[in-house]
Amino acid sequence: GEKTHGVCPVVHGANTSMEKPATRWWPDALNLDILHQNGARTNPMDPDFNYHDAVKALDFDAVKADVKALMTDSQDWWPADWGHYGGLMIRLSWHSAGSYRLADGRGGGGSGNIRFAPLNSWPDNASLDKARRLLWPIKKKYGNALSWADLILLSGTIAYESMGLKTFGFGFGREDIWGPEIDTYWGSEQEWLARSEERYDDLDDPSTLENPLAATHMGLIYVNPEGVNGVPDPMKTAAQIRETFARMAMNDEETAALTCGGHTVGKAHGRGAVDNIGVAPEATKVDQQGLGWSNPGQHGEATNAYTSGIEGAWTKDPIVFDMGYFDMLFGHEWEQVKSPAGACQWEPVNIKEEDKPVDPTDPTIRHNPMMTDADMAMKVDPIYNAYCQKFIADPAYFEDIFARAWFKLTHRDMGPRANYIGPDTPNEELVWQDPIPAGQSGYDVEAVKAKIVASTLSAADMITTAWDSARTYRGSDMRGGANGARIRLAPQKDWVGNEPARLAKVLAVLEPIAAETGASIADVIVLAGNVGIEQAIKAAGFNMDVPFRAGRGDASETMTDAESFSVLEPLADGFRNWQKQEYAVSPEEMMLDRAQLLGLTGWEMTVLVGGLRVLGANFGGSMHGVLTDRMGQLTTDFFVNLTDMGNSWHPRGDGTYEIRDRKSGKTKWTATSADLVFGSNSILRAYAEVYAQDDNHEKFLRDFIATWTKVMNADRFDLS
Ligand code: HEB
Predict the structure, then answer these.
(1) pLDDT reported for residue 597
(2) What ipTM was estimated for this complex?
(3) Average pLDDT estimate for 113-130
(4) Which residue of 153, 239, 286, 658 lies most exposed, with the fewest beta carbons within 10 A?
(5) Longest dimension (CA), the chain
(6) 379 neighbors 240 (Cβ within 8 angstroms)
(7) Alpha carbon of 361 to those of 132, 229, 321, 357, 521: distances in Å?
(8) For residue 415, what is the DSSP state?
(9) What does 254-308 look like in DSSP terms, one character per residue?
(10) 488-491 own/partner pairs: CB under 8 Å, 24+ apart
(11) Long-range contacts made by residues 231-234, C-beta under 8 angstroms, separation at least 24?
């Protein structure tokens, strides 16, 4: 009838699409979902499934042979260019790994995130859905013992091997996620490939690209291949490449090697009109089964595929890893032209017919090769040009630099070498792996503890030093953490957030204890933190041990790429109620970001903050949020007083607050928003109430100890 207009006639009470989440009405509320993504309930594996154990049982030789055979097993539904899928698989690996950015360690191929939105549907990742479908029979065959993340990065590596490159090695061990990564900020644009201005303060100064982003447009891995904002100008493109690759942890030589070695094989696809390509996987109808960019003009011929709109191969022999890219780029003059699809590209002014690559389907036809604006940058920019000359003069050197850069690209977010599995992991230690020598665990822990107790250090000194040492850990690329004791080396010992003078004082006491006992300094720092917490528990009238696992090692200066550590510097630490300066982002958002990088859940973040406040662990002795009159005892006072309606809360206008006795109006405490958010945010308040309850003091201690221990051991990849 007329009354049912707009009303679903079937009872359908669940929110089943992405359109209207239940909490959409309050866009400014702190979104804690990033702490609970990819939780146990999304993971279909058995609870005791451990990927690291499973992959150790993989038949590595058989997998590699199958991936190699796949390269030349062309399928009619997406035929291989020149009968070889190498170019496509390399682009899959590179785009999977290439979303990594050094600033926060997020992105990268370590979790198989390219299977999910938004990455699976980024315009720059067009056609890579085909590459994953081609790999599916291999994933299906090896099952749980081979993650998608490993397979995706293996495929490009084997592609290179099958095209003649001697690769540097390969480590397995990337565990898959089961839904979109929702923690990663990819930019605020509402439009794909929006103009670059949206993420630069000054487009002429590439260093003004918004942090932590590392791509010049929404939906791209790095730079626009047609030129800055689509206008060809290789010098300008070179400047953008330099900045974006630096943000992926690549220097100029690695960048030149990767770009030239990358485009030594494969081709760009730009026949037909862009409007015909079809919607991205995430937007497809059910009958497309998630296969996007349908390429209706392709008709089973590799020649006619459309991907970027640019058209052509870079070299004469695009299924061989050789020096052909340099021959082509440096052996010809290039002019600006348009591809059949209308994209800006460069083609040689004068090229002999026999120097041209043949058509990917019909070997009797030859086409012009092409260069993107990014390729022209390798020739026009003097620094990239100089590296290319070095490569041209010494092909073996080029092959080695390229193989190493490819290995770094595909392993950069896996953390230390201890995380690599399989027969092809390289023996050579590389400084970007942040190496840590093996530590000792045979020393007498109780004797070390006794020396710490007998020292002059306060519990707060010991707790904050251990925390500062461990808090740099980020699960995004598994860097940082207490292992290695890099807190005693430059640059960390001088970071403002580490309170350098206090740190020096504490280390002057702990270092001799390490030397006398054979424990590493890294272990002694953590053990001292435990001692401090055990003392504070005792002061609160309880008796509980904080577990300790010995065996950390001490890194040296030569093992430390100091420059690459600057990104680990904390700019804020809500756990110690501190910010280096005022930021556009609120203290509680920065605390949330840090909690996510540490791998904490919402309640773990809550229990740590509430505990650290009453321990007196604030930066510089600040009293904000120390909601207790018995600081130094590990009590639940922070939660009890925060949730007490006997108090009222008043902004002071400088970003801090007063907590007053509601009746007398007397100020009892001060606080920051990183304190008050635990009472104002409905989810955090629910956790705060748990710990404020009369029945939960002991649970609070148990949870605090467990979470503290989790942070202290977050980087213990040596403990399996
Ligand atoms: Fe690349 C392709 C761009 C880097 C590797 N690339 C490509 C294309 C483009 C580009 C546009 C086309 C696509 C289609 O298909 O259409 N890249 C680029 C840029 C850059 C780069 C802009 C920055 C500079 N690549 C790179 C690297 C690598 C690469 C680094 C590695 C290493 N690529 C590649 C390959 C290919 C490409 C292999 C082909 C694919 C096929 O074949 O499919």
Answers:
(1) 97
(2) 0.99
(3) 96
(4) 286
(5) 93
(6) no
(7) 22, 33, 20, 11, 63
(8) -
(9) HHHHHHHHHTTS-EE-B-S-GGGS---GGG--GGGTT-----TT-TT-GGG-BSS
(10) 488/521, 489/555, 489/556, 489/557, 489/560, 489/562, 490/557, 490/562, 491/562, 491/565, 491/566, 491/569
(11) 231/344, 232/336, 232/344, 232/346, 232/373, 232/376, 233/373, 234/373, 234/376, 234/377, 234/379, 234/380, 234/381
- 292 is written with which tokens? 């996007």
Both tokens of residue 190? 């509402």
Q: What's the gap in Å between 262 CA and the centre of ligand 1? A: 6
CA dihedral of 476, 478, 482, 484, whole degrees rounded to 10: -150
- CA 201 to ligand 1 centroid distance, Å: 27
Nearest to residue 696, comparing CAs of 629, 625, 639? 639
Strands 656-661, 667-672: pairing kind: antiparallel
Amino acid at site 472: T
Q: What is the pLDDT of residues 415-427, one digit of tens each?
A: 999 999 999 999 9
Residue of the CA atom closest to atom 29 of ligand 1? 262
Q: Which helix (H) or strand (E) holds 454?
A: helix 445-454
CA of 95 to the centre of ligand 1 (A): 9
Q: How many whole angstroms separate alpha carbon 578 and alpha carbon 559?
A: 30
Residue 180 and residue 116 in contact, taking contact as beta carbons nearer than 8 Å? yes
Please report, for residues 109, 171, 574, 590, the alpha-carbon distance to residue 675 in angstroms, rounded to integers and kept in the order given.
36, 43, 8, 13
Q: Name the residue with tokens 């001799």.
A: 512
Taking residue 371's Cβ as centre, other Cβ atoms within 10 Å add up to: 26
Instruction: With a cut of 70, say whether residue 10 has pLDDT above it.
Output: no
* Rg of the Cα atoms in the chain: 28
Q: What is d(CA 27, CA 78) in angstroms, rounded to the nearest whole number?
A: 43
Nearest to 122 by CA among 365, 308, 259: 308
Cα–Cα distance, 446 to 526 (Å, whole number):
14
Q: How many CB atoms lie within 10 A of CB 498?
A: 24
Query: Ligand 1, from 193, 223, 263: best to mutate by most atoms within 8 Å of Cβ?
Result: 263
Q: Per-residue confidence at 275, pLDDT binned at 50, 70, 90?
A: confident
Distance in angstroms (rounded) separating the CA atoms of residues 468 and 506: 12
Bond from prior residue into 435 cis (ω within 30 degrees of 0): no
Tokens matching residue 316: 């004469």
362 has a pLDDT exceeding 60 = yes
Taking CB atoms and a 6 Å cutoff, what residues make up the pocket around ligand 1? 81, 87-88, 90-91, 94, 222-223, 225, 241, 258-259, 261-263, 265-269, 307-308, 310, 372, 374
